[in-house]
Structures are given as structure tokens and as C-alpha cells.
Amino acid sequence: MKNIITLSLVLLSICSYAQKDSLKLGDTYWEDQLYINVSYNILKNQPKGIEKSGFSYGFSGGYIKDIPLVRNGRKAIGIGVGYGFDSFNHSLKVVKGAPNVFQIDDAITANKLKIHNIEVPIEFRWRSSTVNSYSFWRFYTGIKLSYNFNNTFSYTDSGVNFTFSNLKEFNKFQTGLILSAGYGTFNFHVYYGLSPLLKNTSLNGYNINSSIIRFGLSFYLL
User: Fold this and answer.
1) Which partner for 123 in 16, 26, 78, 182 could form a disulfide, CB atoms 3.0-4.6 Å apart?
2) Which among 42, 172, 54 is positioned nearest to 108, based on CA atoms?
3) Tens digit of pLDDT for each residue in 85-119?
4) Where are the domains of the chain?
5) Are 35 and 14 in contact (CB under 8 A)?
């Protein structure tokens, strides 16, 4: 987490400089961008009996292609591709089997879930920029499609470490709503997951429908 914070601060200073030369001269301009998101994560729709997750965080970054919808460039569609990482402290215990079983066990420690995704954000973009300005209001909203290529559940039970990777119950394809809004370098970012993390799983007779909410900051390198 410290490395992520350090990287974000370095990129923050780069963003401030890079935005100055971001807009092309002429009547039409594009804002092709590298983006970085740093977030605090929450699991919603947790099963009954599950306590709130501990400190959880996420990091993502990638490239977005800007497609202007109007000549002045203030309205556009953005389509991108990137990488996302999430780390969760949670309360589910995985018991290996066929199928795998999920339980509640307050005795286990260091209970983590780590997720690596390929992401495809698709945005409608509005900004107050002009061809000669680089500090402006922006409002970007849309959906993010994700493909999970690695997931790892790990915990410690009675001094023994257990690790389970790429569970078949993990929902590899996920969708969520995204919003980034702000002025200049600093932009508030939120992701609201529409797809559950797990499929065909239950706990005490109830389906496990946990999904992700992310709150954080977005930085754009133009």
C-alpha cells in the first residue's frame, strides 16, 4: 500500500505538468489519456453473519482513447483498456472441496482476497476545456467491463497458512458503473459493482452475492 501511495504522489506531480500540453491546436482536439485510480474498497451485499471487511484497497491504470462527439471536443466517448488490482480483508473461510465450501470462522487470521483484472472502461465524457486551456471541470461516467485472470484467497488457521488460487466459483466476467468528476488534476472516482464476485455459492442457505464498491481518486496524464 505504501508503494501505491508513493507512486500516486509522483504521478500527481507529473499530471500537473503533462496537462499543460495536452490539447492540440486547431478547431478539434482529442484527450487520449493514461489514467490511474487509487481507491478504498468495500464489499456490499454481504451474507448474514459476515462482519464488515477490514481495510481494503484497489489500484488500476490504463489507456483511454478519446472520440469527440462535437467539434469543440467538450463531449466525447472514451474507450480504454487497463489493469486493475484489488486487495480485501474479509470474513469468509474457503474449505477446499468439489465444490469448494465457504464458511464463517472467527478464529482465522490474515484472511485476504487478492484480485487481478483486465479492465475495459467505456465512458461518456463531458468537460469544460477549450483548445487553449488545461485546467477544467470534467464529468466522465459509464461502465467498466472486467475479466479476472487471477484470484487468490489466503488465510492462517492455527498457525497454518492456506492459499487457494483461481477458484472456479469466482465470477471472471464482471460489470460496474463508473464515475469520475473534478477539476484539474484531482478527480473523485467511484465504481459500483453490478456483478457478484462469486457464483453458485451459498452460506447458511443464503446465496453469496457480495460485490465491490470503490471510492477514491483518479489522475489523468494527457
Assistant:
1) 78
2) 54
3) 999 998 888 888 878 888 888 788 888 999 999 99
4) 2-21+29-221
5) no
CATH, domain 2-21+29-221, list 3.30.70.260, 2.40.160.20, 3.30.390.80, 2.60.40.10: 2.40.160.20
Residue 159 CB neighbours (<10 A): 6
For residue 79, give Cα distances in angstroms to 17, 62, 82. 24, 11, 10
Distance CA 173, CA 79 (A): 18
pLDDT, tens digit (0-9, with 9 covering 90-100), for 48-74: 877 666 789 999 999 999 998 988 778
Separation CA 165–CA 22 (nearest Å): 42
Where b means 16+ CB within 10 Å and e means fewer, 89-127 reads bbbbbbeeeeebebeeeeebeebbbebebebebebebbb
The rounded distance, in Å, linking the Cα atoms of 91 and 110 is 10
**pTM, rounded to two decimals:** 0.83
